[in-house]
Design a protein that fits this description.
The complex is a heterodimer of chains A (241) and B (251).
Chain A: H1 8-16, H2 37-43, E1 44-47, H3 59-69, H4 72-82, H5 97-110, E2 115-119, H6 127-139, E3 144-148, H7 152-158, E4 161-166, E5 169-175, H8 176-180, E6 184-189, E7 198-203, E8 206-210, H9 213-221, E9 225-230, H10 234-238
Parallel strand pairs in A: 1-2, 2-3
Antiparallel strand pairs in A: 4-5, 6-8, 6-9, 7-8
Helix pairs in contact in A: 4-5
Chain B: H1 2-13, H2 19-41, H3 46-76, H4 80-90, H5 93-123, H6 132-151, H7 157-184, H8 192-213, H9 221-246
Helix pairs in contact in B: 1-5, 2-3, 3-5, 3-6, 3-7, 3-8, 5-6, 5-9, 6-7, 6-8, 6-9, 7-8, 8-9
Classes of the chains: A alpha/beta (241), B mainly alpha (251).
């Protein structure tokens, strides 16, 4: 996770071997992907945020390629369950941004590879497709996933280990268990944060506060806040903890 | 690797021969040759008809070649984003580079064959030149194809198409100007370097002009053709190397 320009896409580009680091090294299974690009691209597939196609090919052409080098169960999921089959005869440039991202996801998740690199891969999808594809990743996918996102809930939904980037450097990294140890809560605010709460960060309708669960329960029952939950990666994403 | 290459080639051949582009272009070519053929029928001696051959070579190298090359480059030059998608889907850098070259060559092959045959029909019996004029025209196009494919490494289709079209027009035109100067100053022979440059920039025109205006080039047409082939092989190999090992593609 990280703000715009924090270095997420750059890091993922180095990870799949598309960029060379200006300093330092990055190792995947003991090798540097940008020095062994053929091996890296066999091991990894990439889905990126900008859905842009400029080829005179149809959705079924992508499907045809993936039938030769992809995972059959995964293809069946996208083709029949998600409903990509209905787009089969469409030209790739004619698809909507959400449909394009769906095709990108089908490519990235279904081509056989050990690691899936997903860069803001759900940003153009509607909630129904986010649920379908996210659930598939969580339950069915037999590969490691490296996912970048701006949505803390999405990260906590699918993530096991988190890295928060800030200005190209690691601001925080850890697991959900590490996060649970913090006495910080996300409070859904009505108008303004009730007095007496120590505000760690204010993020619009959500405020990060340091407080006890009893106090927040009391405020919630009085209708002064619209709910709360243990703070997740949003704490570090906000960059104020 | 071979399986990946087969899939990549199939992917790049999709949409390669679009009738909506190819039919008008071949009609233009037929019209071009038809008009010049009709004109040549009215000419008497072989000297006059040879000038028509020269005219054909001039127009083919500065008009038809850029057109055909532009349409070929428009297919194989992809944006950075599209390239990342393809690299991920096909899972092989080298396969994509080779598939692009294969698509370029297969696209240009029918055009080159047409030129060889059409030029041969014109040149037979009108001078000392023969089938080699068409061959040099084809190889010259291949040389510019090499430049175009290298330009496509920039990751912009517009730059690749416009840049290669301009070079395919401007460099052959520069030979036209150079040949004009040679004639004006009555130069009778050219050194190896100048001959090599002429063959690289516009082989068929340089070759035909050397007969028409009577200057001798230090390289024969076979040496010129070999030079073009060698340079092309080198450029294509460099393209595969740079694309698969060095090109940076940020997502």
């Amino acid at each position: 996770m990280g703000h715009n320009g924090s270095g997420k896409s750059t890091l993922l580009s180095i990870l799949y071997g598309g960029l060379f680091p200006s300093s330092g090294r990055l190792l995947v299974d003991g090798y540097e992907p940008y020095r062994e690009r053929e091996r890296a691209i066999r091991d990894m597939t990439i889905v990126f945020e900008r859905p842009y196609f400029d080829v005179n090919a149809r959705v079924r052409d992508v499907y045809g390629v993936l039938r030769e080098n992809g995972d059959g169960d995964c293809l069946e999921f996208f083709w029949d369950v998600v409903g990509v089959k209905g787009l089969g005869s469409k030209l790739l440039p004619d698809l909507s941004s959400g449909q394009k991202q769906l095709i990108q996801l089908m490519q990235g998740l279904c081509r056989v590879s050990k690691i899936k690199v997903l860069d803001e891969a759900f940003s153009h999808l509607d909630p129904v497709n986010v649920d379908a594809v996210g659930s598939y990743i969580a339950r069915e996918l037999k590969a490691d996933v490296v996912l970048s996102t701006h949505v803390p809930e999405e990260a906590e939904w699918l993530g096991e280990y988190f890295i928060v980037l800030r200005d190209g450097r690691v601001a925080w990294r850890g697991t959900l268990e590490d996060l649970a140890r913090e006495n910080i809560y996300e409070v859904y605010v009505r108008g303004h944060v009730p007095e007496g709460l120590e505000v760690v960060a204010s993020l619009g309708y959500v405020a990060l506060v340091r407080a006890s669960e009893d106090v927040l329960f009391e405020l919630n029952s009085r209708g002064l806040i619209r709910g709360f939950r243990k703070a997740g990666v949003r704490v570090y994403y906000a960059g104020r903890a | 690797m071979l399986g990946g290459l087969r899939v990549a080639v199939k992917w790049y051949f999709r949409g390669l021969f679009l009738p909506s582009i190819l039919v008008p272009m071949f009609l233009l070519m037929l019209l071009f040759y038809g008009l010049l053929y009709g004109y040549s029928l009215g000419l008497g001696d072989s000297g006059e008809r040879f000038r028509v051959v020269y005219l054909i070579v001039v127009l083919a190298s500065v008009l038809l070649n850029p057109l055909f090359l532009a349409s070929a480059v428009a297919h194989v030059a992809r944006t950075r984003d599209m390239t990342v998608f393809e690299v991920s889907m096909l899972g092989c850098w080298v396969c994509i580079a080779v598939a692009r070259l294969a698509a370029l060559l297969f696209y240009l092959a029918p055009y080159m064959l047409f030129q060889v045959v059409a030029l041969w029909l014109f040149v037979r019996g009108v001078g000392a030149v023969g089938l080699e004029v068409g061959l040099l025209l084809g190889l010259s196009l291949l040389f510019y194809g090499g430049i175009a494919i290298v330009l496509s490494l920039g990751g912009s289709r517009v730059v690749a198409v416009v840049g290669s079209s301009m070079l395919t027009f401007l460099l052959p035109t520069s030979v036209l100007i150079l040949v004009g100067s040679l004639t004006m100053y009555r130069v009778s022979s050219l050194d190896v370097f100048t001959s090599a440059v002429l063959y690289l920039f516009n082989a068929p025109l340089s070759y035909v002009a050397s007969y028409l205006y009577g200057f001798r080039m230090a390289l024969s047409w076979t040496q010129g053709a070999l030079l073009l082939v060698l340079v092309d092989v080198l450029v294509f190999a460099m393209y595969v190397y740079v694309f698969s090992r060095k090109q940076e593609l940020k997502i």
